[in-house]
Write a structure and sequence with these properties.
Blueprint: E1 4-8, H1 13-24, E2 28-32, H2 42-50, E3 55-57, H3 64-73, E4 77-82, H4 89-94, H5 96-117, E5 121-127, H6 151-169, E6 174-180, E7 182-184, H7 203-211, E8 218-221, E9 233-234, E10 236-238, H8 239-254, E11 262-267, E12 273-274, H9 275-286, E13 292-295, H10 310-316, H11 324-339
Parallel strand pairs: 1-2, 1-4, 2-3, 4-5, 5-6, 6-11, 7-10, 8-13
Antiparallel strand pairs: 9-12
Length: 342
């Protein structure tokens, strides 16, 4: 019998790609998602790619009664991958209480049920935002965490602390936090990809929507950073590579070869690219026009960050494989398919 994995936020961008990789590896997947930033049609796309439709329950994990009822119904969950969270840096600055309530209460409800129903394993969707603006680059897992630049980033740091403390006193509960850098791109089938509700908060969907004519121009936030071209630098990782890291982490937990009750890993490429480099690469690889305008810096954004991935490469046996160019090409293929652009 295949092992059952709960994926919260599983119809979202990273979640849906991870569900595909899990199902391709033979896992049985059930999704919880409130569809606040995704669509139910994602289930059709997952089924088309993998030949199997995941289980699905629609509710928000801050609802304690519904979360309890889920675990009463699904008795065979062996591990959880927890994506479900609000994730817009700028919005979190404007709506801090909404972010703290949603992101922290949902996690605590899950952990309570892990203890109650003896679900031993969780992989958590964390973020490189926990490092703030590092004093030294690239960041390793031993790089000190800094006070977050945004409430969103702070919810990730607090969530990590909650998991660490909870797993320390609850024998048999093991958690792995994956600290993502910047996920971009889409599945090579172009059947799933990043499709935010409303105005995109992330760079690449804003680029693709501008190229598709949905947006008048791309806004680049700041050109006075201490970087070669003045725009911010990030470590951009292909979403499929990122999804595969979750499968590796799940196997590590299920095979009981993790070294501690709480572990964390940087998941990036090890390369930093500026916003302007990314824009120019997109234009070049896809042969499209892309009107853009430089505007003021955005609240909560840091100047530059990229990963040292040595620990994840060696300890997990995982490595990012896809190039920036092929990743940006996949993002445009997905946008064209969604908008019926030939």
């Amino acid at each position: 019998m295949s092992k059952q994995i709960l994926v919260t936020g599983g119809t979202g961008y990273i979640g849906s790609h991870t569900v595909v990789e899990l199902q391709n590896e033979g896992f049985e997947v059930v999704i919880i998602d409130d569809l606040s930033n995704s669509g139910i049609e994602v289930l059709d796309a997952i089924e088309k790619i993998t030949g199997k439709r995941p289980g699905f329950e629609q509710f928000n994990l801050t609802d304690r009664e519904k979360t309890d009822a889920f675990f009463e119904k699904y008795k065979n969950v062996e591990a959880i991958i927890h994506f479900a969270a609000y994730k817009a840096v700028g919005e979190s600055v404007q709506k801090p209480l909404e972010y703290y309530r949603n992101n922290l209460v949902s996690l605590m409800n899950l952990l309570e049920n892990m203890k109650k129903h003896q679900v031993p394993n969780m992989v958590f969707s964390s973020s490189c935002t926990v490092y703030g603006q590092p004093d030294k680059l690239p960041v390793t897992e031993s790089t000190p965490r800094k006070p977050a630049e945004s409430p969103y980033g702070n919810t990730k740091a607090i969530s990590e602390d909650i998991m660490r403390d909870f797993s320390a006193v609850n024998e048999g509960v093991n958690c792995i936090a994956l600290r993502y850098f910047n996920p971009i791109g889409a599945h090579p089938s172009a059947l799933i990809g990043e499709l935010p509700v409303g105005v995109p908060n992330n760079l690449v969907p804003f680029i693709t929507q501008t190229a598709a004519g949905l947006r008048d121009e791309l806004k680049i936030f700041g050109e006075d950073y201490d970087t070669e071209d003045g725009t911010a630098i990030r470590d951009y990782i292909n979403v499929v590579d990122l999804a595969k890291a979750h499968v590796v982490a799940i196997n590590r937990l299920l095979e009981d070869n993790n070294k501690a009750s709480y572990e964390f890993f940087n998941v990036g490429t090890g390369n930093g690219y500026s916003v302007m480099q990314l824009v120019k690469s997109f234009i070049k690889v896809n042969g499209v026009d892309l009107p853009y305008q430089i505007v003021d810096r955005r609240a909560g954004d840091i100047e530059k960050i990229w990963a040292d991935t040595t620990y994840a490469n060696e300890e997990l046996g995982w490595k990012a494989e896809k190039t920036l160019d092929e990743t940006l090409k996949s993002a445009w293929e997905w946008e064209k398919k969604v908008r019926n652009i030939k």
